[in-house]
């Protein structure tokens, strides 16, 4: 990632962000408790958040990323309260990628501009990112007309330019065909190998087996399990997780 | 209809020969309405975007008032500005009544609510789509505004053109604050009303044709711009 790292941007090596620690984190909306007492400690590697629909996976991710504020409990990045400089070292890719109504290239130069990259460097960096994610020939195409897989790769290319220490991915492959899923997984691998912490939600058990270093399992707003991936799939601790791994979603 | 036919032919002659009286009226009309729309856009677009972006006590009331003022009758707007600018009014000392500046002010009062209210709706819809992603980039509300205004530019161009349509077509406000003074504050709509009353159908019809042509040109330009932008943006 060093070739695209922005000058002056703090990096994990000199100023570690991890571990991410949640203590007693809860979230309620309009009197409804959606997450209860989450205690969690995330270190480096690829964390997959799993659980049935409505378990609170996306919500947990939004709380970690700072898009929502917990109604109880605390979140700490290496002991520090979330703050704007720490938020700038994170990126998030959504289930339905939110792309600006501009060309693919302009979507990338936009993030470079808002992060203060000098104008003369933007185009070259954006084109390098498009090439890295196999989108070079689509540079001038309007982002909204790209296919689902292309849009998701563009969202990943955009996140790449942000050179995040932590990347959140909210079910990034849920609506994609197998080829597009493979491309997204390769992109996630790029991030992982460049030292970016991955936190990702998925419903896809096979994908979780391929990608996960550790698994966080949620059900009905409660954290039931956080364990290394091998142990989670071989011998899940909770009956709900065991049913989930067998493909029998608990309700 | 020999009178109408004759008037129509004379009207066309006035246009084709670039009659100085007609040209002066058209020039002043464009000057007043374009100035009013420019000022209304400069205030109304950020105002609409701010209303979409920030929540504050009384925001709902502001939105309702703006929406209601979209239908403000031009004569009422004219009367309000007249009372402000008349000798006894709070701004009477400026001596602006019966000047093109007064007409610009009256038209700004008419156009501003349209631009602000409609841009708020468009920006709010786009914000619903963009909010999480822009927040994820670390942008605060103030820094989201230029992005939203730029990405909603096609819809906002239509909004500004709707404002221009309102400004160029109204009679009541400019008549009250401008006074329809020949060569000074006479614009197309007030001239059409006056010349029709005086039976000078040729000039009235000529001005009417120019006004129609102008509106058609503006709409064609908006359509072409919109199509181009849609092709670029998908």
What does this structure look like?
- The complex is a heterodimer of chains A (251) and B (234).
- By secondary structure, chain A is α/β, with parallel strands linked by helices.
- Chain A has helices at 57-65, 84-87, 104-114, 119-132, 148-161, 178-193, 205-211, 229-234, 239-245, and strands spanning 20-29, 32-42, 46-50, 72-77, 90-93, 166-170, 197-201, 214-219, 222-228.
- In chain A, a hairpin with a 2-residue loop joins strand 8 (214-219) and strand 9 (222-228).
- Chain A is globular, with a radius of gyration of 18 Å.
- Residues 1-10 of chain A have low confidence and may be disordered.
- Chain B is mainly α and 234 residues long.
- Helix content of chain B is 80%, strand content 0%.
- Chain B contains ten helices and no strands.
- Chain B has helices spanning 2-16, 20-53, 59-69, 74-85, 100-136, 141-151, 153-169, 172-178, 188-197, 201-233.
- Chain B is flat, with a radius of gyration of 21 Å.
Write the layout of secondary structure elements.
The complex is a heterodimer of chains A (251) and B (234).
Chain A: E1 20-29, E2 32-42, E3 46-50, H1 57-65, E4 72-77, H2 84-87, E5 90-93, H3 104-114, H4 119-132, H5 148-161, E6 166-170, H6 178-193, E7 197-201, H7 205-211, E8 214-219, E9 222-228, H8 229-234, H9 239-245
Parallel strand pairs in A: 3-7, 3-8, 5-6, 6-7
Antiparallel strand pairs in A: 1-2, 1-4, 8-9
Helix pairs in contact in A: 3-4, 3-5, 4-5, 5-6
Chain B: H1 2-16, H2 20-53, H3 59-69, H4 74-85, H5 100-136, H6 141-151, H7 153-169, H8 172-178, H9 188-197, H10 201-233
Helix pairs in contact in B: 1-10, 2-5, 2-6, 2-7, 3-5, 4-5, 4-8, 5-6, 5-7, 5-8, 7-10, 9-10
